[in-house]
């Protein structure tokens, strides 16, 4: 894993970062922008587990919940801090989508569509992740999951709803995002 560098990569708000994996999260495809921003060569990404871009500031519980949803065949949205090969970071709003075989109903893989996360969303979520990470360091992912659940119970909303609200994923934005997803599906 590269050493994290506390420097942000500025993302083009108009471009999408798309990747596809097999059912185990092994990268099978990345669009040009994914390759460009990650700083890796395409050949370094294909065949690798998707945690190649994992940033150590991300709490484990976020991915645990993501996998719980997508492995059941549900979509999931998240705000994720990723790390490039040179250690710099970038924040993305990500929608994860399972691909289900129409005949067997089995999950054959997953696609992730990402856009630059708005600053307001990052400012809200970063302290929540920091706290979850601290809890994880003390009491493991069981402890951070309890905190996570308590937090969203208190807010009276799910993490998905919270994220969609934060990034304004509704109306035109949502329609455009769906259209982009269809292009890549
Ligand atoms: C389609 C897809 C896209 C993913 N994209 C990312 C990503 O951009 N960043 C990330 O850290 N993990 C991503 N993951 C999750 C990783 O597979 C992994 O679960 C996560 O990085 C946690 O790594 P760890 O289990 O080694 O802690 C993605 C998974 C899938 C299925």
Quick overview of this protein structure:
By secondary structure, the chain is α+β, with helices and mostly antiparallel strands. It has six helices and five strands; from the N terminus they run ββαααβββααα. The chain has a single domain, classed as 2-Layer Sandwich (Beta-Lactamase), CATH 3.30.450.
In words, what does this structure look like?
By secondary structure, the chain is of the alpha+beta class. The protein has a single domain, classed as PAS domain (Beta-Lactamase, 2-Layer Sandwich), CATH 3.30.450.20. Helix content is 44%, strand content 22%. It has six helices and five strands, in the order ββαααβββααα. It has a five-stranded antiparallel sheet with strand order 2-1-5-4-3, sandwiched between helices. β1 and β2 (27-30) form a beta hairpin. α4 (119-155) runs antiparallel to α5 (159-167). The radius of gyration is 16 Å and the shape is globular. The model has no long low-confidence stretch (mean pLDDT 94). The site of flavin mononucleotide has 17 residues, from β1, α3, β3 and β5.
Structural key phrases:
185 residues; alpha+beta; Beta-Lactamase; five-stranded antiparallel beta sheet; 6 helices; 5 strands; 22% strand; globular; binds flavin mononucleotide
Beginning-to-end CA distance, first to last residue: 30 Å
Instruction: Please state the overall shape, judged from the principal axes of the Cα atoms.
Output: globular
Bound compounds, please? Answer: flavin mononucleotide
Query: Mind summarizing the main beta sheet?
Result: 5 strands, antiparallel
Task: Kindly provide the name of the CATH class.
Answer: Alpha Beta
What is the overall number of helices? 6
């Amino acid at each position: 894993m590269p050493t994290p560098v506390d420097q942000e990569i500025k993302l083009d708000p108009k471009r999408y970062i798309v990747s596809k994996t097999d059912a185990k999260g092994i990268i099978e495809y990345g669009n040009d922008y994914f390759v460009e921003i990650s700083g890796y060569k395409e050949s370094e990404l294909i065949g690798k587990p998707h945690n190649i871009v994992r940033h150590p500031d991300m709490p484990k519980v976020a991915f645990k919940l993501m996998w719980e949803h997508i492995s059941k065949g549900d979509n999931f949205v998240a705000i994720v801090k990723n790390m490039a090969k040179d250690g710099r970071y970038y924040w993305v709003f990500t929608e994860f989508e399972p691909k289900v075989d129409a005949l067997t109903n089995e999950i054959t893989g997953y696609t992730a569509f990402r856009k630059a996360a708005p600053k307001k969303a990052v400012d809200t979520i970063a302290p929540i992740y920091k706290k979850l990470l601290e809890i994880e360091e003390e009491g493991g992912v069981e402890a951070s999951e309890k905190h996570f659940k308590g937090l969203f119970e208190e807010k009276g909303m799910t993490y998905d709803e919270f994220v969609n609200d934060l990034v304004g994923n509704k109306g035109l934005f949502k329609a455009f995002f769906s259209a982009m997803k269809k292009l890549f599906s």
